[in-house]
Amino acid sequence: MHVLAQEQLRLDAGPVDYLLLALYFAFVLGIGLLARRSVSSSLDFFLSGRSLPAWVTGLAFIAANLGAVEIIGMSANGAQYGMPTMHYFWVGAIPAMLFLGVVMMPFYYGSKVRSVPEFMLRRFGKAAHLVNAISFAVAQLLIAGVNLFLLASIVNVLLGWPLWVSVIIAALIVLSYTGLGGLSAAIYNEVLQFFVIVAALLPLTIVGMIKVGGWSGLVDKVGTQYGANELSAWPGNELTGFGSNFLSVLGIVFGLGFVLAFGYWTTNFVEVQRAMASKSMSAAQRTPIIGAFPKMLIPFLVIIPGMIAGASVQEMMVFKQTGEGNVEYNDALLLLMRDLLPNGILGIALAGLLASFMAGMAANLSSFNTVFTYDIWQAYVIRNRPDSYYLNMGRWVTVGSTVIAIGTAFIASGYSNLMDYLQQLFSLFNAPLFATFILGMFWKRMTPAAGWSGLVLGTAASLSVFLMAETGVLDLPGQGASFVGAGAAFVVDILVSVVVSLATRPKPAAELVGLVYGLTPKEDRTASTTGEDAGWYRRPALLAGIVLVIVIILNIVFG
């Protein structure tokens, strides 16, 4: 991102744009102050007192994922790889979100745990709990750094402030509302941010499409300049780095669609925390399913503008063809904004970008402070204090994590395509956790010793693949290293867990009710269909079926 301070990317923002930005920040801080009034216990601060309706948590579920990474990273992928990037949404997100809603959420919500690591504690005991809590905490700090770095980059482009000043100011804004109102402030801001992000990206996509002559014009331009492989989602060889079509499809379906996607969506507490804040089990189940409707359409707002930039912005075309120039793929969206948006609209677009980064970072911080306070501090460091102690601790942890995120922001600055960095983190932290989770949830024989040893060795397997790819032992360009790493983590974790389980003693069946599928009575994992949960349109399974049909159609049309 060395290029961002350069004049060629300076956006020509006028007084109207700054006014719109100031108004947006006033709203954000106002929500933080209002949410503070409803915080009287640690459960209110960390889980919104489990009182929010499904449409609020559903939109927050998606906004928490619409961070910098999603918007800048996916538009960078669109500029670099074209249509195969669609897989991150239609293969690498939707099926896993539906599985979380229909199958996993009843266990999370029904067992009344406060976090994903706490579920691990109940199922596998302390060792697995500690391993999971620490690895999750580290991952959140690294990912918060990515969001913070991109947030600062925008401020740097806008105002020309040095990057380190921008990083600190951006961090203080997010800290102010997350520290005030806890999860409620983060969630209500995420709902606001969702609408601001759409209002920002929709005009950009429409103006961009008009500029290149509509869909047929874009297909023409991309096809003639870069070849037909950027115009169809399958087999996606450039994205995976595999020469063979079969291996590429296998990498996308197993590595991305199964291990990385299910690992991310079903065990990532950043997302699950939003559903846990719902007011009933039915609302908790509907949260990721409601989120899946906008999630299907977001590629048209982030990947298509990336492709338009790759096919029509002069600097990006030169960079793509020669690998030279002062821009990189992460700049795709900013370059398009610079070229296409008039003042006023530019202010909305910038507010949308800032909103996306703040949503992502606030989601990282609010989940980090919950896991650190409940699963590390209260469980292992200082126990049995009054609730007010942990509430204050949560606020201080938010401050500490923001400071650390400022440090990790500079690690992220070393990557020209941030999606590569992120997929790497997910294959390290989420893939082994998913393997442990899914085996432990459906196989009652799995033992506490298998819980932690599978996690540790699965993570080690993913790390080995990463190091071999970095040192050139394995030749895996694109995002192939993270797909292979995720697959290795999953397979090793499962094998180790099975072997260790057969050699050690399982927990008694009575202790696993509510935690293992076969031992939990059907009525305990079935949401109510009366009162506020009545009506066919509130049935989780039916809603999930509708989403699945639409996604299959999208894959056929754009495949």
From TrEMBL:
The chain crosses the membrane at residues 18-35, 55-76, 88-109, 130-155, 161-180, 192-210, 246-267, 288-308, 345-372, 393-415, 421-442, 449-469, 481-503, 541-558. One of its GO terms (molecular function) is D-glucose:sodium symporter activity. The keyword Membrane applies. CDD domains: SLC5sbd_u2. Keywords: Membrane, Transmembrane, Transmembrane helix. It is a multi-pass membrane protein. GO terms for cellular component: plasma membrane. It holds the Pfam family SSF. It is found in: Membrane. Belongs to the sodium:solute symporter (SSF) (TC 2.A.21) family. PANTHER family: SODIUM_GLUCOSE COTRANSPORTER 4, SOLUTE CARRIER FAMILY 5. This is Solute:Na+ symporter, SSS family. It comes from Actinopolyspora righensis. The lineage of its organism: Bacteria, Bacillati, Actinomycetota, Actinomycetes, Actinopolysporales.
